[in-house]
Every structure is written in structure tokens, then in C-alpha cells.
């Protein structure tokens, strides 16, 4: 599997965010997207996720599921956790698992995902009572509840303490070991040895 961008360009609000951008990342590889604030790191992830329209260039995925688009084969983890406070931790994850997976999720899959991110004992707690770090971990659980080969992560370690960061790195390494792809926008190292860097901006 290989995800490639060729000559990518994006204009938002009348401003050119980037142009002539090329990248390539294959199964089992991680690509760290770096650069100063406002240079287009988040925008590139959102373009790949299908949330922002390309104004030029081509985005292709070879070796994936030919019946699904890049968007349908990608998980996007953005800055917002997108949780409903009045629903419990388990209900929030079940909603996202069904929304992303297109089928009623199995209870054991939900339980396993929550346990993997350290929230297994909080399934019945309303999400309104979660700390910022716990909310982030619940968002990360979506990556596990529905299997998709491409993970698009925007500052994935934000709001996480050291233990939770280490746990996330372990999950990312397992995803790569299974042949998955990770593209992560970050201001610094996130603990993935061997990750390649795509630096955006005039100072690249």
C-alpha cells in the first residue's frame, strides 16, 4: 500500500496554503509533517481526509481497498475531540464506531478499545466528567474500534501525560507493524523511530 500526493495545491479563504507539494508514504511507514504554525500541516491532513478540497494536484492510494476512497480508508484525529458530553464514554465510542464502520459495533470491540486506552472502567461515565487527557484518549479509541489502514493524526500527543503518550506510541507502532500508514502533523518528535519528515514552508 502506498499513499502519494503529486503537485498538491490548496487555497483557503483566498490564500494559497501550499502548492506543488509532493509526498509518498507506504505501508509500515510514518510521515511526520512539520513546520511553523500556519504553514499548512493541519490543512494537508484535512485534504487527505477529504475535509478540505484540493485546488490542484493528485492524491492517490495504491494497494488499498479498490472499492473505497482514500477518505473511507482513513482515520482523521483532529484538534477537536468531537464528543457529546451527555452520552457516556461507551455510548460516544459506539456512536463513532457505527458512524465510521457502517455496522452495529460488537460490544467486545468497544470494550477492548476502551481498555487499550485506559478507559475500560469508565464506560458508563458521562463524557462531560472526563479530563482533557481522558477526552483525547477516548478520541484515540476510535482508531482501534474501527480498523482503517491510514491514520491521519494532528498533534496526537496534545493533552496527554507521559504515560498516555507512551501508550499511544505503542499503539502507533503496532499499527505500523501491521502494515498501516501514519501521517502525523507535529511540532516535535513523537517517539516513532525511523519516521520520515515532510517539512512545509519557505524555510523547508
Walk me through the structure.
The protein is built from 5 helices and 8 strands. The strands form 2 sheets. The chain has a 5-stranded parallel beta sheet, sandwiched between helices. It has a 3-stranded antiparallel beta sheet with strand order 2-1-4, with helices on one face. It has 204 residues and is α/β, with parallel strands linked by helices. The protein has helices at residues 41-48, 89-101, 107-116, 132-145, 162-177; strands spanning 2-12, 15-26, 30-34, 56-62, 74-77, 150-154, 181-185, 196-199. The protein has one domain: Rossmann fold, CATH 3.40.50.
How would you briefly describe this protein structure?
The protein has a single domain, classed as P-loop containing nucleotide triphosphate hydrolases (Rossmann fold), CATH 3.40.50. 30% of the residues lie in helices and 26% in strands. The chain is built from 5 helices and 8 strands, in the order E-E-E-H-E-E-H-H-H-E-H-E-E.
